[in-house]
């Protein structure tokens, strides 16, 4: 981690107040899940990313899922039974495994005649002539199956998120050659990851990634679930993709004079007597194509771009989470300026680690101490603020 002097190193960390990991991947190491019950972190927001881990996340949420109400988990004085908030999504690293079979997609996308044709279209440069590489890839799955599966998980888990989803311009697909010919796959790791393979020259077409991201954002909007978004080397395109989902739903931005006038007019209407028998009927909310809350996880964009996400016209609450592993993994101090600029009620802490246990606790303590130092918060005030923010992000309720 980059050297960031916190000045809080000797202060006892207030675990008893409740620490919440906004983004992690312990299902990548299934054996580590048994250690969650003994962790100091009170709850983990666990991401699914690909075909192999969706059911693992769901099954573990069945055992240790957080209550549908924020009060029990936030006010717990002892370790609560519920320790897990599940999140179901398809990561951009695996987006090439999916083809768009919806009615409004192109005929080419709907009719996948062969693996070679599909991967030849969605991978750059086209690997059509690399038969060994194409054989190493799974048979592509229809998007309709993925959305049906995700919807089913969300229905069974009422506070589940959609994630991890997003865009990644720099990712290269693992190839067929092992980094070390003597490499033996770790049986503890969930299948479907890199598995010790060298990276190929191939990348997933960005338009294809955007198609999958948009489809999952639309589902999150329909189900009114929060979303955890991955964005690497694509900050502008991530914003444009998100913006396209709420186009036409922007909130009006009023001048001070207009706000004052509306407030006085609103009061007058509230005091107006209704005629006999007339009742106010609540309007039924129609499904929206965008989620109510979005977290840009391990946010690595510049502080200038925060303004576009925090513009008062945006009808979505945007949160920004930070991790020691990603944001402070080098000597770069860019994250310091960003953390200073993020509003106090929109910042989250995360570990982004692939295994539960002591190391995950250590990373949570490290990032929270760092955030508190940068923000000028005491540890007690910071832990309470971050817990409140997490509850707001997950449950949609201010605390």
Quick structural overview:
It holds the Pfam family TatD_DNase. This protein has 399 residues and is of the alpha/beta class.
Low confidence ranges: 269-282
How would you describe the shape? globular
What is the assembly state of the chains in this entry?
Answer: single chain
Number of strands: 14
Describe the strand arrangement of the main beta sheet, using strand numbers. 1-2-3-7-11-12-13-14
SSE topology string: EEHHEEHHEHEHEEEEHEHHEHEHHEHH
Protein name: Cut9 interacting protein Scn1
Pfam families: TatD_DNase (PF01026)
Biased composition (Basic and acidic residues): 271-281
InterPro entries: Metal_Hydrolase (IPR032466), Metallo-hydrolase/TatD-type (IPR053044), TatD-like (IPR001130)
Helix and strand topology:
Blueprint: E1 20-24, E2 43-47, H1 54-64, H2 70-75, E3 84-88, E4 98-99, H3 107-110, H4 115-122, E5 123-124, H5 131-136, E6 141-142, H6 143-156, E7 161-168, E8 174-178, E9 197-199, E10 203-204, H7 206-223, E11 227-232, H8 235-246, H9 256-271, E12 293-296, H10 306-309, E13 317-322, H11 324-327, H12 334-341, E14 347-349, H13 358-375, H14 379-395
Parallel strand pairs: 1-2, 2-3, 3-7, 4-6, 7-11, 11-12, 12-13, 13-14
Antiparallel strand pairs: 5-10, 8-9
Helix pairs in contact: 6-7, 7-8, 13-14
